[in-house]
Design brief:
The structure holds 2 protein chains of 2 kinds. By secondary structure, chain A is mainly alpha-helical. Helices cover 78% and strands 0% of the residues of chain A. Chain A is built from 12 helices and no strands. The longest helix of chain A is centred in the middle third of the chain and has 33 residues. The two termini of chain A are 42 Å apart. By secondary structure, chain B is of the alpha/beta class. Chain B has a domain of 146 residues: P-loop containing nucleotide triphosphate hydrolases (Rossmann fold, 3-Layer(aba) Sandwich). Chain B is 36% helix and 25% strand. Chain B contains 8 helices and 10 strands. In chain B, the strands form 2 sheets. A 6-stranded mixed sheet of chain B has the order 6-7-8-3-9-10, with helices on both faces. In chain B, a hairpin with a 4-residue loop joins strand 9 and strand 10. In chain B, helix 3 crosses helix 4, helix 4 packs antiparallel against helix 5 and helix 7 crosses helix 8. Classes of the chains: A mainly alpha, B alpha/beta.
């Protein structure tokens, strides 16, 4: 009996929760995000507990957690994570430092867009993995090579996205600046840049996610430490628990990065009508 | 050639002399404005109406110096327009406010290129915040304001540096009817208090008549002047004028003109 009433309530709720572009309570929204991971976790646990697949193909959640605990207590995890985070930060920052001015110039000056857009659009389709041999020749086998790979994986997309961020601002803002007597340079710095900043910040958030996805590729060759390296090493010994733990851990760090950028954006750009 | 109103005839504030504008659309020259001659008097309020595509916004942009005529010349106080200048203020249809600045910040930003002293600037900002009825909202950000309030900030921003001409491109087009009515009355009040020449582009015939000393009706494809109608309704005007029989007569005439143009356009599109 309890079950039927429960089901009735869920059915009614569903009606209220699934409406086109309608807001739902925050609590429901955040809770919804946990549902699928929990279901997946339970499935994973059930499948391994019932020994439906061999642990080699899918280790149990507990052995993955155990592996995590081992890495944590032996200090490997911290060492790997700090090396990788350092590479990610430097690689992404290097890309950003170049992409921001180039993207802004491309978004504002047709000539510069015409000069660079075809090149950047071509290069961004080239597989970064294929450039590993060249990157070793150019940058050696130290951290520089890893950072170069992360740079290549991030920069081209980022420059194009920042160009779009700049182009998306209302043309009348620029015209207002002109009627108020500001020079082109002043309009660029004091109107276009601040107006495009919330969009650019969003691009930062998205592109640092891409940098994270290039981590394993970057640490493919000649790395002694790093989260990606650990995964590649584990491949040699078929330790699937290490692979799974490493992958999940990178995902977790990515989630954290995303959260920090979202929070940062929300407090930096309170004035923006686009931000929620 | 045009029936200029009395005060416009002699010392024109704005002279539009044989102005034409061609646009290059995929290799072909398209005549947007054929040839417009018009004088606008000092402190006159002129509304410009016409079907879409008659070049009314282009004309306004050219007077504002945001666009260049292909032919002819625009003179302000006898001097040719050469780009935007601080003798003109511009209000756009979109709420073109600087979102990262407060109400006060937006208005103050317009004063940066002025030679007023700091104290004068503070006073001017306060004066215009008050004039557009935004006292108490000085520290608010545009995001927190309604559409009507944002457009009031835009008006204050366009007037604070004391231009002698105010150019308005469908500034109330995005507002609801009630807000729009209030904004029109507010604009007339400001115009009366601050003595500026206003060029006001609009789709709305009621709005054009209610505000203007003269209405310029533009014909389309190519854009040119169809008719100039002096509006002899008493000032100061309030909403009651909307039901005045004379108002209805003007409205009938202008609506008929615009309808005629629209029909021509439709016929062109079908041929």
């Amino acid at each position: 009996m309890d079950q039927t009433t429960d089901r009735g309530r869920i059915a009614r709720k569903k009606k209220g929760l699934l409406r086109l572009r309608q807001d739902i309570p925050d609590s429901v929204f955040s809770a919804a995000g946990i549902v699928i991971p929990v279901v997946l976790f339970l499935l994973w646990w059930a499948v391994t507990a019932m020994e439906l697949v061999r642990p080699l193909f899918l280790p149990s959640p507990w052995s993955v957690l155990e592996e995590g605990w081992r890495q944590l207590s032996e200090g490997i995890l911290f060492a790997d994570a700090s090396v990788s985070i350092y590479r990610i930060l430097i690689g992404w920052l290097a890309a950003t430092v170049v992409a921001v001015p180039i993207g802004i110039l491309m978004g504002n000056y047709k000539l510069i867009e015409g000069l660079l857009e075809p090149l950047i659009s071509t290069v961004r389709y080239m597989p970064v993995v294929a450039l590993i041999p060249l990157s070793i020749l150019w940058a050696g086998i130290g951290d520089g090579q890893k950072i170069l790979i992360l740079f290549l994986g991030t920069f081209f997309q980022q420059a194009l996205m920042i160009m779009d961020n700049v182009k998306n601002i209302d043309l009348n803002l620029i015209r207002a600046g002109q009627t108020l007597g500001f020079t082109n340079n002043e309009i660029l710095r004091r109107i276009i840049l601040p107006a495009a900043l919330p969009g650019i910040w969003d691009t930062f958030r998205i592109t640092i996610g891409w940098t994270w996805t290039y981590l394993v590729v970057a640490e493919l060759v000649a790395a002694n430490a790093g989260l990606g390296r650990r995964i590649m090493d584990a491949q040699r010994y078929l330790s699937t628990d290490t692979i799974l733990f490493g992958t999940l851990f990178i995902g977790l760090l990515g989630l954290l990065t995303d959260y920090l950028f979202k929070r940062g954006g929300r407090s930096l750009f309170k004035w923006s009508s686009q931000s929620r | 050639m045009n029936s200029l109103s009395k005060h416009a005839a002699r010392d024109a504030k704005v002279s539009i002399v044989g102005v034409g504008k061609n646009f290059n659309v995929s290799g072909r020259d398209l005549v947007a404005i054929e040839k417009i001659d018009l004088d606008i008097g000092k402190n006159e309020f002129v509304s410009i109406v016409g079907t879409s595509g008659c070049g009314k916004s282009t004309l306004l942009n050219m007077i504002g110096g945001l666009d260049e005529p292909t032919f002819g010349e625009i003179l302000i106080d006898g001097r040719p327009v050469n780009g935007p200048g601080r003798d003109r203020g511009f209000v756009f249809q979109t709420y073109s406010l600087f979102e990262w600045m407060t109400v006060e910040g937006n208005i103050r930003f317009a004063l940066e290129k002025s030679t007023f002293s700091k104290a004068e600037k503070t006073e001017l900002v306060a004066h215009f915040v008050h004039a557009v009825g935004l006292s108490g909202f000085e520290k608010a950000f545009p995001k927190q304001l309604s559409g009507g309030m944002r457009q009031r900030v835009a008006i204050a921003r366009a007037l604070v540096y004391k231009p002698s001409i105010l150019l308005m491109d469908e500034p109330f087009g995005a507002l609801d009817a009630q807000t729009r009515g209030m904004m029109q009355e507010l604009l007339l009040q400001i115009w009366d208090d601050h003595k500026v020449t206003v060029l006001f582009v609009t789709h709305d015939v009621d709005e054009a008549i209610f505000l203007a000393d003269r209405i310029v009706v533009l014909a389309s494809r190519p854009g040119r002047i169809k008719k100039v109608i002096p509006i002899e309704l008493e000032r100061p005007r309030s909403f009651e004028v909307l039901t005045d029989p004379k108002f209805a007569t003007y409205k009938r005439e202008i609506l008929a003109d615009i309808r005629e143009e629209t029909l021509k356009l439709m016929a062109m599109d079908h041929s």
